[in-house]
Amino acid sequence: DSGVTQTPKHLITATGQRVTLRCSPRSGDLSVYWYQQSLDQGLQFLIQYYNGEERAKGNILERFSAQQFPDLHSELNLSSLELGDSALYFCASSVGQEQYFGPGTRLTVT
Amino acid sequence: GENVEQHPSTLSVQEGDSAVIKCTYSDSASNYFPWYKQELGKRPQLIIDIRSNVGEKKDQRIAVTLNKTAKHFSLHITETQPEDSAVYFCAASPRTGNTPLVFGKGTRLSVIA
After folding, report:
1. What separation in angstroms does the CA of A5 have from each of A83, A105, B30, B70?
2. Gyration radius of chain A over CA positions
3. What is the least distance, in Å, from the CA of A11 to any CA of chain B?
4. Could you read off the pLDDT of A73-89 as tens digits, one per residue?
């Protein structure tokens, strides 16, 4: 157990819908990263927050957004969902360079 | 930006043999190189890492080597066991502190009993 939690574990929704994924970092970690992993694909960096502020942006679609709250948990919002958005979404947290991943949320868009 | 290439994409070894996975990176400013193991449907798990001021690091049956001049680093697993079967990802961090990792595309390792 890495200490990073994510909810829900699984999410099945229809095209065009909007979902919210939640991540709680390890105690004391200020950074939260979101990654997308499609079937048999690597880990694509989406976005990073550090102590409530956006720190870095990767290959994140305009339909996706995220935020980090004062208690340091983070939410990733995915809207106007398409079939191609089906993937595992991981968050990770860090206090330095070592990143620890949560268990992921498996999103299936039908 | 940083680009990480990983080879091979798949690797099969007999139980007890060694496995080597290689990665190259493009940004000479990168200074942190972790390796993650991901079992099917599970989270990537940090198994070993190396920083640019070190050439080699070992932890029991796994070791990582770094060649800064050539900008490549490798994961070595000795005496492989069936439970080593997984996808392994290398990554590089372009700067110090809290920065995103750039991952290789992964190597699927199969250890045949």
Report:
1. 26, 10, 29, 38
2. 13
3. 14
4. 999 999 999 999 999 99
